[in-house]
Amino acid sequence: MARVQLIDVNKAFGDVVVIPSIDLDIADREFVVLVGPSGCGKTTTLRMVAGLEAASGGTIRIGEREVTDLRPGLRNCAMVFQNYALYPHMSVAQNISYGMKVRGEDRGEIERKVDNAARILGLEDFLHRRPKHLSGGQRQRVAIGRAIVRDPDVFLFDEPLSNLDAKLRIEMRTEIKTLHRRLENTVIYVTHDQVEAMTLANRVVVMNEGRIEQYGRPIEVYERPANTFVASFIGAPSMNFLPGRVVAHGSGLGVALSADAVLPVPGGDEARYRGHLDREVTFGLRPEHFVPEGEVVGTLPVTPLTTEPLGPHTLLFGDFGEARVVAQIGAHEPVDLDRPYDLSCDMQKMHLFDRASGVAL
């Protein structure tokens, strides 16, 4: 168990800088998820913590030790890979125990640790099987078991669920979260799936182009995104973005999206946005925040294109001018695709971003 610190860590491959500079402080026993699109630097960051990639600069600390220049075997990290990396000719028990045998650990201790890992992961009945006779979820459990027996300070997961089908991913998310609660190790987990990030993490690190865009509790990142990138990446379907301007509206403020659509700014937010009067902004609202009624409601007229019934609710896709809007509406809400449809916006949930920089106002 250990705190993990990255201090001004950077990485370049020749002349190509993939991590300009990153500072990250992960508390002891915390479950932190690095999330972002492909190529954002999250796996490179994980591999630098593991020692599989050398940092070009900066300092990496695990617990009380600086490990920046230590080889992987001396860092006491256990890594679980996307492709499981199991030996096909070995049984489950042999795969789990292989590292301990290489290190020359006592045979009785090896058997005890393998049995304990198998019990934790529900693999007792599979110890004599080979990987080809296991399902994808069982193979992933074996890979996790191999990490558990090392008794590491830090678990490192590199997109471990991406090869599983949707049902298995949900089941394995629950198992990994339960495992963390039981073992209480520090976990750094990499994924491009924002649902995994939201459901697993104590804190989420949203990365883009080698930089940390936001770092915080999942609900904080979801409800208070730092910029349009975070707002668009976290949440499914993505947040709606419409160009607008902060204007005087009645006795208060409004967001003008068009000549016919001026949405009222809630009274409690007027002081926050008063200094941005006449500023060009990007108006953001999540699909689930189109509601029948609310304390402060604005109306957005759209031209419906299609609907997607999802059981408990329906997604409505429509056009507002040149912009596409996605709204979550009631499962039985009648929609005529041939007629304009008024969406009610819960303005208490709106977000305003600077049009040029994308930073939240």
Describe this structure in words.
This protein is elongated. By secondary structure, it is of the alpha+beta class. It has 9 helices and 19 strands. It is 25% helix and 35% strand. A hairpin with a 2-residue loop joins strand 9 and strand 10. The chain folds into 2 domains: 230 residues, P-loop containing nucleotide triphosphate hydrolases (Rossmann fold), CATH 3.40.50; 114 residues, OB fold (Dihydrolipoamide Acetyltransferase, E2P) (Beta Barrel), CATH 2.40.50. The strands form 4 sheets. The protein has a 6-stranded mixed beta sheet, with helices on both faces. It has a 5-stranded antiparallel beta sheet with strand order 13-12-11-14-19. Strands 2-1-4-5 form a 4-stranded antiparallel beta sheet, with helices on one face.
